[in-house]
């Protein structure tokens, strides 16, 4: 028997609803006005319309005659990102599938889609976070033509899904479905990949060996298979009911993947305003859907980047959600999945063991998710507790049954750990996130003298010189959104991992981000207020004793910060177009609010 909703989840939900009452009401009023004002694209002038379908070729007459819904695609296709390469053929196929149900499809526009894996440790990483605002703005431009009765969003990776959703929510009077393309096949073992990275950091293998290892991991079209931000995005879209059920982790090229995309096209045509099952995005993404996204993140040990993205996506829908809400949910939501880097298997193993259908089913059974959310699919959120398959040529769904691998997936009644492993640490150094699900419990508390750095390259140089061979809290500051765009500091992971393996007590404290694949080293990240502007990290000095404790939620120093002046802020770097992103940096708000310039300037 399904248990009633958990008391903590109910309490947090009610608080979020109360805190969001005015802003949510204003958002929904705006969406209602937009829906009434743009109900008929044929209110456009003849000249406007002629421009809009001049290139529609075979669909031109159907659009002209308004024979059925016209669906807009916003695509993040490029063939440099392995995850987005499969999208190349999606629009032409979706046009064919739309005609099967009397609809038409046009590509409304494209968005940039950068790869954090390519830019890790490079200058381009300083554009990464604000590419999310750029993607949102590109989505808004794409949908500004008032030609569409529904929206298909084609995007997967790190900032792309949050950016697409934030932009689409400003057109929340339209029904919207995310269409994924699935993960690449499993390559070399994650343990072997991690071993080679650490050997390279120690100088024990060369670049050729490292490159061969990386190519064994990232080798074909599809999403990278570790459970980082991209795959956490797909999990959240399932938890919010924005996919066709079970679409997240079906591989590219499979017959099942094609049928799921065909089904998404048909469904989008069916939930338009002129039909009898209207499901606008503004009503699908509500407070309970945002809570479900956070629950999924915690239950599966997902990317720390979503401590920034969830508040930002919520704000775009008029919803207020912060780290206190996330931390309280974490105390109630158990960890039911261990996917690399939290475990040994990747997302393909996760999917084969039961995947999202299993996760959602066990959460619903234990009263640990909102069952009553409005989804894009018929049958409500319970439909997402089933897994898709093929019966001949027909798309079907079935109960995933028990876990296929209890080292990968466990029931919520017998989890890997009783909490979700995303903890808030705070004190006289500010507020930060600590991903405890990836860290052994004996390392949840680290207290040691600190070494202060202002970029990750300096940390790696100190490591190579042996200066960090001791118990140490590595502080990397001036990495926040207003300083340099809050880059990921993933290049620190191998060096800090080596120090930890050598027996030292090591932790990281930073106002920057770590990768969505944050690993085994304890880290207090996204520290806010950031160092730029006089935040506490700007007053730390080498040798100050710093304590990071996930058990007690502590982030503090014994140093007298009040008696000190803040360190001088480094001059912003030029090149790689970073100077043009100054407008985003200057106007960005804090990490806990979502680190968005766009939302801050809009007063949302």
TrEMBL record:
Q: Which GO terms describe its molecular function?
A: 4 iron, 4 sulfur cluster binding; metal ion binding; phosphogluconate dehydratase activity
| Gene3D superfamilies referenced in this protein's UniProt entry, alphabetically | IlvD/EDD C-terminal domain-like (3.50.30.80)
Q: Quote the EC number.
A: 4.2.1.12
Alphabetical keyword list: 4Fe-4S, Carbohydrate metabolism, Gluconate utilization, Iron, Iron-sulfur, Lyase, Metal-binding
- The source's domain of life comes to Bacteria
Domain annotation Dihydroxy-acid/6-phosphogluconate dehydratase N-terminal: ranges: 69-378
Q: What cofactor does this protein call for?
A: [4Fe-4S] cluster
User: Part of which pathway?
Assistant: Carbohydrate metabolism; Entner-Doudoroff pathway
Query: For this chain's UniProt record, which GO biological process terms are given?
Result: D-gluconate metabolic process; Entner-Doudoroff pathway through 6-phosphogluconate
InterPro entries, per database record: 6-phosphgluc_deHydtase, Dihydro-acid_dehy_C, DiOHA_6PGluconate_deHydtase_CS, ILV_EDD_C, ILV_EDD_N, IlvD/EDD_N
What's its top-level EC category?
A: lyase
Q: Which residues fall in a coiled-coil region?
A: none
One GO cellular component term = cytosol
Function field: Catalyzes the dehydration of 6-phospho-D-gluconate to 2-dehydro-3-deoxy-6-phospho-D-gluconate.
What is the protein named? Phosphogluconate dehydratase
What is the species of this protein?
A: Qipengyuania nanhaisediminis
